[in-house]
Amino acid sequence: MEAAGIKNRSAYMRKMILDGYIIRKDYPLLREYFSELKRIGNNLNQLARVANEYYAIDFPELQELMQEVRYWQQLILKELK
User: Fold this and answer.
1) Phi-psi group of 27: left, alpha or beta (phi > 0 → left; psi -120 to 50 → alpha; rest → beta)
2) What is the pLDDT, as a whole number, of residue 57?
3) How does DSSP classify residue 20?
4) DSSP for 57-77?
5) Run means of pLDDT, 10 residues per run, the chain, 81 residues
6) Burial (0-12, 13-18, 19+ Cβ within 10 Å), 62
7) CA separation for the pair 37, 66 (Å, rounded)
8) Whole-angstrom distance, CA of residue 8 vs CA of residue 21
């Protein structure tokens, strides 16, 4: 159960009964990527709030960049499934 990374005993038993095995996928680089991406998104949100609050400026370039990042992120997640 510990090696499979499952903390809930019932979930572990159910998985073993249904499938007979557990495959644990570990993607440390992707985990790090998404962590960094989250930090970047938080920073962009803070910048956008300040810009809107003090200058009433909209940044279409940032919005386009974030849409592109979301697109690639979704593409990566689809490939992993």
Assistant:
1) beta
2) 66
3) S
4) ---HHHHHHHHHHHHHHHHHH
5) 83 87 80 86 82 73 79 82 66
6) middle
7) 10
8) 16
- Tokens standing for 66? 């974030």
Spatial separation of the C-alpha atoms in residues 78 and 50, rounded to whole Å:
34
Can you give the pLDDT at residue 58?
Answer: 67
Could you tell me which of 1, 78, 73 has the C-alpha nearest to residue 30?
Answer: 73
CA distances from 20 to 3, 11, 17 (A): 15, 13, 6
d(CA 21, CA 46): 45
User: Which two structure tokens, joined as six digits, stand for 61?
Assistant: 């370039």
